[in-house]
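Re-running the complex after MR caught last week's input typo. The corrected sequence lines follow. Everything else is unchanged.
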Amino acid sequence: MSASVTSLVDGIRVNGASKRFGELDVIPPTDLVVAPGDVVTMIGPSGCGKTTLLRMIAGLEAPTAGAIVIDGVSPGEARRHKRIGFVPQAPALLPWRTVEDNARLLLDLNRSANRGSGNDPLPLLERVGLGEFRGAYPHELSGGMQQRVGLVRAFALGADYLLMDEPFAALDEITRADMRHLLAELSEPTGAGVVFVTHSLAEAVFLSDRIVVMSPRPGRIVGTVGVPLPRPRVPELEDTSEFFALETQIRAMLLAGAGR
Amino acid sequence: MRRPRLETALWSAAGAVGLIAVWEALVRVLDVRPMVLLAPSRILSTFVDDPGPYLQDSWVTARHLLAGLAISLVISLVVGAFLAAVRELEHLAQPLLVLIMVTPWVAYITSVVLVVGGGQPAVVFLVAFVTIPAFVYATAEGMRGADPAARELFASIDASRWEVLWRLRLPSALPSIFTATRFNVGLGLGAAYFAEGAALRLDGLGDTGRRAAAFSDGEALWTTILCAALLGIAAQVAIAALERWLLRWHQSQR
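Corrected-run output:
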């Protein structure tokens, strides 16, 4: 993929996509562009529809109206060609597979769509500190370790886009901080586009190039904030005044979006 | 706290010895008739006197049980997978499954013999038939219970239906299938023993037991009963070993 020229079809393009569940208006018509290599976070209160929007991008849910295009093809097509690495909220490790086999899971399924660029999960497991645990079963791991396997599983796919649905929501605060630092370390060299759903201000500011702030349901985009912090993102950034200022700004937008 | 394995085994062995001792004492003290209950020592001496026929009968019954359970499991995996996939099918199958579960075999064994023929086919058919509901329920429920997040993950890279079935749903159903197997061994053994006696077969523990009962031969009757019980225990031990190996990842094995 040429990173220098961004044509009209490159990236994730959400064109007026909306979602209704029966009478329930979950997402009003929404426009969003995630350029290749962009890290975009969607932040908003619980139940605002950000997960639904992510699932529509992943092709797991069809929009009621409007369209979503990923590098010129439909999300369904992107799924078929394994161009999306999905990280669900729960680690969803298969308990009968070892750590290594879980990390390899997405490569083992729908094999004909594997790309040469698929990574070997072993070095990735080493990098996240799970090299010694490659033969262990998921029940032998802590929650944080399980979610690290979940990240490796997605990265091993070598996909162009990573879609992450509050992957650290179930972890304690200290582990969460470690995980966002690890995620930045893993994703920055790959140049993959990332859409990250969270309701953590620190995660949004630390990881993103851009932050999309959403209102409570129906989840409207109330604003987009660019994050001018330098890359690579290092943990020390979290103690800077710029970081605090961005957190404050996002918090204010969330409150304004909620009508408070 | 988990007890060491040796200690667990010792307690179980003590229970078995105690049971046999009480049994022996009861029969002797109350002078129970052999047809009602035979003392363990006399069962043992009957068996040791001429073990050949009992071993042969046990082998015949074991084969009936194994064949019936295998056929039932294969059918149930296919049926269960369909039921797990389509809710309406499960509702549709519900009356039949419940009917199979609650209807006494004694009542319809004659029809079975008339339809599939006497002897081995009738015995294997009955074992398979009565064990199907438990296997089907276990398969359908286990498969449907597969982790929804894992299903999304499979969908996110467009895994085929076959991959979802084989790599996600079937392993998810294994624990409940094992539970059903343990239940079905007892059920199937009962069905095999009964059908052998009722299906005009001339060997098998059930047939020998039926004839012994007809001739008021308490020794032979109780020896077939004990052989059937030992067969059931052997099957349970084999299943437990298989389970420990296949489900080493599951919480029940920790």
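None of the earlier attempt is carried over here. The two ends of chain B are 12 Å apart (CA to CA). Chain B has a mean pLDDT of 92.
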